[in-house]
Amino acid sequence: MSYPIFGKIRFPSLKSAPQRSFNLSDIKVSIKLNSVLTKWGEQENFPDNINIFDQEQYQHDGNSIGYHSYFRTRWDIKGTVLRQSEKSHIYVNLAIVKGNKGQNFFIPEQLQETITLENHKRFDDDSYYLNVTALKECKHVSINDANYLFYVNDIEYCATADSQDYVWITPITENHYLQFTFGVTNNTDVRDHLETVKDYCTSIMQTVQIDFPDWVKREKAIAASVSKDINQGVAMEPLIWKREAETGSYLDFKREASEKAKQTEEQN
Question: Which has the least CB within 10 A, 71, 171, 184, 225?
Fold first, then answer.
């Protein structure tokens, strides 16, 4: 059974999700994740063994750090059994991020500085994004003996549906970190249920296990000798952009449609 029977909004069952394992240069990562559960796509095939030191696999934007997705999937969020239509979608992206030389991601301040710069570069683009609040609810969390930086991004796009992204980041070497991103299409059907969506994504993250080889443990020990606390960083303030859409744009149409849907819902 992919979806439970009961619930106002229903997610793919985590109990039936397969355990997926990845070997990232002797760093073992496992997580319970369902395959694609939507009528609009098929599950991509990804290798289980990845050389994180292979420079050619990373996608770069100018002088920025490099990204390599090692697993992606998408699920429908469904309504009640009597109303089988899709309410929204969750996009999942697991990525390896490679830093520049001289960075040490086991030192929290350096990891946070990189994440702040990357979010700023991404959203400082008024041709693609409108109102954005990045790095919301930023905090350090521990999951199965691994330390993560968690934050939320509220994103309003110029020409596509808005999203709320839940992001967990954890360093796996001095120069690499893993980024787990769960993006929900933020429409009127799920707007009142975002905390439930976040709780569901959090429950998936609770299944993540990372086993480090000795050479990574030595890197961590060296970082601990130069940093007061490798488990905590400094407080991070949200990054905020406020932009207006062009008159007559697709966004105007999208907002009008959203308002009409809300009025119809209130009348019913």
Answer: 225
